[in-house]
Each structure stands twice: as structure tokens, then as C-alpha cells.
Amino acid sequence: MTQLRPDATPAAFDPAAFSVVPPRTFEDLRVGEVFRAPSRTLTDAHAAAFQTVSADNHPIHYDAEFARRHGHSAPVVHGLQVLAFTAPGATLFPHHIGEVFVSFLELSCEFLAEVHAGDTLYPALTVTALEPRGDNGVVTTAATVHNQHGELVLSGQHKYLLRRS
Predict the structure, then answer these.
(1) Is the pLDDT of residue 130 over 70?
(2) Are 131 and 142 in contact (CB under 8 A)?
(3) 116 within some domain
(4) What is the pLDDT of residues 63-114, one digit of tens each?
(5) What rounded mean pLDDT belongs to the chain?
(6) Quick check: 28 and 58 in contact, CB under 8 A?
(7) At residue 50, what are phi and psi to the nearest 5 degrees?
(8) Which among 129, 155, 161 is positioned nearest to 143, based on CA atoms?
(9) What is the CATH number of the domain that holds 37?
(10) What ranges make up the beta strands (E) of 96-165?
(11) Whole domain around residue 138: which residue ranges?
């Protein structure tokens, strides 16, 4: 149904009205803000799909007997697959900053514990620093992934460049 303004003319279409969340600027962000991703339970199918895409054919990732012979309880999910769960797009963060986003500058991480098919992962990005740089600003986030037991399995950092208002 077309919405009519009081003067009986159709309201103008505004694509900005279709934002998932209200857009924010660098100045609107606050240290300590947390952007969580929905939990996900990894399956053998997820691991197999990542193995196909990454071309990583090490048997530690798909051969249960090889994994057991090398001290693991089951095949180990690829570390880069776990890191991928910290992608900003898995959270609402890029929806908030979409209007001012310039680039993803860098990332680092430490793999702290094994992840196996059947584990449920809980990723989050927490703003830890906001550094103005001229017309832009650098946002640093702590990237974390916990498993269903509350164990921190990945800890890292992301940096993004945003335009300042």
C-alpha cells in the first residue's frame, strides 16, 4: 500500500529507511561495546565444506583414526574456520558502520583450544580502542570465541578504518 502524505502525494522512497540498525559514526562507538554473533554448532558437513574451500587436506581435519593416533579425541576443526566465525559480518557491527567503513586493516589471533564437530561456538567483537587519525579513525576490537563449556578457544584482535564525521 502506498503511503500518502497529508497533501495526498505518494511519500518518496528512501533506501536508507531499510537499514537493519541505525547507522553510526566513529564518534558514536564506545570502548567496551560488544557485538556478538549468533551461536553456531559446527558439524562434520561444515568442516568438510571448509576443507574443500581451503584446500587444506591434512588428515588431522578429517581422519578420526589419524587424529586419535596423534593425541586428539576427534578430527580438529580448521583454525582458520574458527577464526572465520569472528568475521565482522557475522555480527551487526558492519550494519552499524556501513556508511563510514573504509577498510579492514589487520587481524591477529591465538588458537587456545581445539574445536571439534559438535562444538557450539560463541563469537564476539568487543571495542577496545578508538584512535582518531585525521579524517579517519581506527577501531580496535578484541575478537573472542568461546565454546559451549565457556572455554575461550580463540582470542585475537581486529582493526578497522572508519571515516570520521
Answers:
(1) yes
(2) no
(3) yes
(4) 999 999 999 999 999 999 999 999 999 999 999 998 999 999 999 999 999 9
(5) 93
(6) no
(7) -65, -40
(8) 155
(9) 3.10.129.10
(10) 101-111, 120-133, 136-147, 152-163
(11) 25-42+78-163
